Amino acid sequence: MRPGQIHESLNPLKWLIGTWKSVSAKGAYPTISPFTYCEEISFESIGQPMLNYTSKSWHPEKGNPMHLESGYLRIFPGSKISFMVAHNFGLTTLEEGTVQGNTVQLKSKQISRMTHAKEPAVTEVQRDYKLNENGQLEMVMCMATSKTPMTEHLRVIYEKFVQ
Ligand code: HEM
């Protein structure tokens, strides 16, 4: 392991590398009540041509863990990226897209879920990351389920606290 080393193929994604903490994290969906949460995400380079990803979220008042994710973000020639993510509620998503300047746009290509995972099933995911003019990372996640068409679920602003 060589933390901090950055493979040259990752140059287009350099702005995403680091540990980010939410300063605003909002969730909503037509089937649930709107909510807020706290989240810490990390895109870490250990010298390989990919970023190692983790996300931990927790309840803003009670502090109990909520949604957890971990995975790998790989980059291919032509700024094409693939993001493979395992979610703690029994889902894996393979999301693909591109990095263009200070934006990353991803759409699910495959989703699998544990047989007894909670309903409704997620059928599609889209997430967009953008480095804004204040150096904050913005993320919007939309999803479709077996009951609801593509609708926004999460909107987060993060600030970097570890390079
Ligand atoms: C890609 C990531 C995520 C996916 C695919 C996902 C998926 C879902 C789905 C399918 C539902 C049920 C919606 C329905 O009943 O119609 C849901 C509900 C919910 N999600 Fe997410 N979610 C994600 C991330 C998060 C995050 C980061 C949080 C915040 C900590 C969160 C918090 C909630 C809450 C509080 C509910 C309502 C309670 C519940 O039904 O369990 N989700 N999510």
Structural class: mainly beta
Instruction: Please provide the ordered H/E string of secondary-structure elements.
Output: EEEEEEEEEEE
Distinct ligands, ions and cofactors found in the model:
protoporphyrin IX containing FE
Low-confidence stretches: none
- Percentage beta strand: over 45%
- Looking at CATH, the homologous superfamily is Calycin beta-barrel core domain
**Percentage of helical residues?**
under 10%
Report on the biggest sheet: 10 strands, antiparallel, barrel
- CATH class reads Mainly Beta
Number of strands: 11
Q: Mean pLDDT across all residues, rounded?
A: 96
Task: Provide an overview of this structure.
There is one protein chain. The protein is mainly β and 163 residues long. The protein has a single domain (8-160), classed as Lipocalin, CATH 2.40.128.20. Helices cover 0% and strands 64% of the residues. The protein has a ten-stranded antiparallel β-barrel. The model has no long low-confidence stretch (mean pLDDT 96). Residues 27, 29, 31-32, 35, 37, 57, 66-67, 87, 120, 122, 125, 141, 143, 145, 147-148, 153-154 line the site of protoporphyrin IX containing FE. This is THAP4-like heme-binding domain-containing protein. Residues 10-160 form the THAP4-like heme-binding domain. It catalyses: peroxynitrite = nitrate. InterPro entries: Calycin, Nitrobindin, THAP4-like_heme-bd.
